[in-house]
Amino acid sequence: MNSRLLGLLACLLVLPWSAASAPQCPRGTLTGKVTYVRDGDTIELGEMAIRLQGLAAPEWNEPGGAESRKAMMALVHGRTVRCQLDGARTYDRCAGICYLEGADISELIVHRG
After folding, report:
1. Is 2.40.50.90 the CATH classification of the domain at 24-112?
2. pTM over 0.70
3. What does the alpha-carbon distance between residue 19 and residue 94 come to, in Å, rounded to a whole number?
């Protein structure tokens, strides 16, 4: 067997396994306390990481990242939020729109600068 065919076979064997091993994101409403703030656009409710749709913040190790994380922590850490999840996944995070006291958290952060 030539190396090209072996490479193709290896890809075919790995792809189904990696797709099957990634946990699915739920659809619907999830309500809970924010237990951790990863960065300016990702929060955790219990063990579930949620990427806030409509918001793009620098990672914690990028310029402005520490400030955006602090702003998100001040707003939501330890507070109860309601998230509408659409079943989409971004890396290791589920995507959704989250609300604090009825207000879209992404909009609140943007308005606060």
Report:
1. yes
2. yes
3. 15
